């Protein structure tokens, strides 16, 4: 449609107009000159009403004092460099535990030092869920009884509910465009949303009461605090925050962080692996960098990441070709304004066609080719922080992702560790398939099965 109708055009679904924006110059005009006018999210969507604690999840909240207050707390208290640094040991121990797990799978299945077949989408998801859960709520997702306890049934159910939640967030319901037939609930989506929201709320409720009890028991300032501890202490005496119940604000903010952090990073790692397997020369160069910089006799630390610029370029190139949300996250205009020479009415929704911007042949040579080298040559000054409008995987403007450095670092660290610890091969003579399904995020449809074999000295895995 963008090829046919140009870099800015309108579609109409029901009574709602939506602008589709598909080039970087207009994106720049949108997220600089007009940013304030387009910093709210559509709040009247069926999914928002049912899944976002009535708007208390700040990622879906309208632009205003409540959103500003929570975003400020999240940025200063939860995503500050100091807090991220304090939780470094969790990221390291979770990555090492997962690498060790994979090594055990290889040891248990292997007598001839051969490769073993593993499914990577699930491996990445479990690792990320455990890592994110420990940082946010102090315990693993897989192993609800505490770190080290492998309560996989509960973990799998939790992962399923969050996946269901993400799927439902991306669902198009008839009620969104023809509100007067909403009550008919075609497809049963609204019923499913209520059920998923209730199940998730029960999990978050249990976690919140544990955190409140812990706070009552110990007030030692030196105790390590997870994200939920911080929220509980910030809102200690408050019963209501901007009209919302304090408990709901804490649960909603924790959920916003869990859902923001897990799917996006899992999806990025999965696509990065697909691209590396389809481009063996890039994989070879990445391995060379790892072995020159780190060697085969020790594990990678977070402080090593700055020595791995090629791997960083691989992640940027993956985010260019496979932004987790190829159509951005919806916004809505709260004022009339002019964009690309056109008059835009207040109330119009905005979809930013990130994929189209990222593959514009006026900006990117061989736009559909996977060429990480471009970030060391022709595009070496382009970063992903939302100021270079040619590359916006984390969005831009006031509503830009608040966790850019953190998200980028997580992906970089996990990919570096996995590639450093294992030789990998495509099990099939055919290219790895890249079929995707588009919901709120663009996920690989089929499992990602690959062959792996350890490549460090055994001591590295044994001491992890
Ligand atoms: C590869 C990793 C990630 C990508 C590509 C990504 C991408 C995005 C995008 C495109 C948006 C919408 C921005 C806009 O409207 O302009 C967003 C918002 C958001 N992201 Fe991320 N994200 C990532 C990681 C994370 C992580 C690790 C967290 C949490 C720790 C997180 C939390 C959020 C939240 C809470 C919002 C909503 C912000 C608001 O509405 O004010 N994201 N992200």
UniProtKB/TrEMBL annotation:
Pfam families hit by this protein: p450
Keyword Coiled coil among UniProt keywords: yes
Matches recorded under CDD domains: CYP82
Ranges in a coiled coil: 190-217
Species assigned in the record: Stylosanthes scabra
Assigned protein family: Belongs to the cytochrome P450 family.
Record keywords: Coiled coil, Heme, Iron, Metal-binding, Monooxygenase, Oxidoreductase
Protein's recorded name: Cytochrome P450
Gene3D superfamilies: Cytochrome P450 (1.10.630.10)
């Amino acid at each position: 449609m963008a090829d046919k109708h140009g870099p800015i055009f309108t579609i109409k679904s029901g009574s709602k107009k939506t602008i589709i924006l598909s080039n970087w110059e207009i994106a720049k005009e949108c997220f600089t000159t007009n940013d304030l006018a387009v910093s709210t999210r559509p709040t009247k969507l069926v999914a928002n009403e049912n899944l976002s604690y009535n708007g208390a999840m700040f990622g879906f909240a309208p632009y205003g004092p409540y959103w500003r207050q929570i975003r400020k707390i999240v940025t200063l208290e939860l995503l500050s460099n100091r807090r991220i640094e304090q939780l470094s040991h969790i990221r390291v121990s979770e990555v090492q535990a997962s690498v060790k797990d994979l090594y055990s799978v290889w040891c248990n299945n292997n007598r001839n030092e051969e490769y073993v077949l593993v499914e990577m989408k699930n491996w990445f998801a479990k690792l990320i869920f455990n890592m994110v859960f420990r940082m946010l709520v102090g315990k693993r997702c897989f192993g609800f009884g505490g770190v080290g306890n492998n309560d996989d049934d509960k973990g799998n159910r939790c992962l399923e509910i969050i996946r269901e939640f993400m799927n439902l967030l991306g669902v198009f319901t008839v009620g969104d465009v023809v509100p007067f037939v909403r009550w008919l609930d075609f497809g049963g989506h609204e019923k499913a949303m209520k059920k998923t929201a209730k199940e998730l709320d029960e999990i978050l409720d249990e976690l919140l009461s544990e955190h409140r009890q812990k706070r009552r028991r110990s007030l030692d300032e030196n105790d390590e605090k997870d994200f939920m501890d911080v929220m509980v202490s910030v809102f200690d005496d408050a019963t209501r925050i901007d009209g919302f119940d304090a408990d709901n604000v804490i649960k909603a903010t924790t959920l916003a962080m869990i859902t923001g952090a897990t799917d996006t990073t899992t999806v990025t790692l999965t696509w990065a692996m697909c691209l590396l397997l389809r481009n063996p020369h890039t994989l070879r160069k990445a391995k060379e960098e790892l072995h020159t910089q780190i060697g085969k006799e020790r594990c990678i630390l977070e402080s090593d990441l700055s020595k791995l610029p090629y791997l960083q370029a691989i992640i940027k190139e993956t985010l260019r070709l496979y932004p987790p949300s190829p159509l951005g996250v919806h916004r809505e205009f709260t004022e009339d304004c002019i964009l690309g020479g056109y008059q835009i009415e207040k109330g119009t929704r905005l979809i930013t066609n990130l994929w189209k911007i990222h593959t514009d042949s006026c900006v990117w040579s061989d736009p559909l080719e996977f060429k990480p080298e471009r970030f060391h040559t022709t595009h070496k000054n382009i970063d992903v922080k939302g100021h270079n409008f040619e590359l916006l995987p984390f969005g831009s403007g006031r509503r830009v992702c608040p966790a850019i450095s953190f998200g980028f670092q997580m992906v970089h660290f996990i990919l570096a560790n996995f590639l450093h610890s294992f030789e990998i091969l495509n099990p099939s003579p055919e290219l790895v398939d890249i079929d995707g399904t588009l919901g709120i995020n663009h996920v690989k449809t089929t499992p990602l099965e690959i062959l792996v074999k350890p490549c460090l000295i055994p001591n590295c895995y044994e001491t992890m």
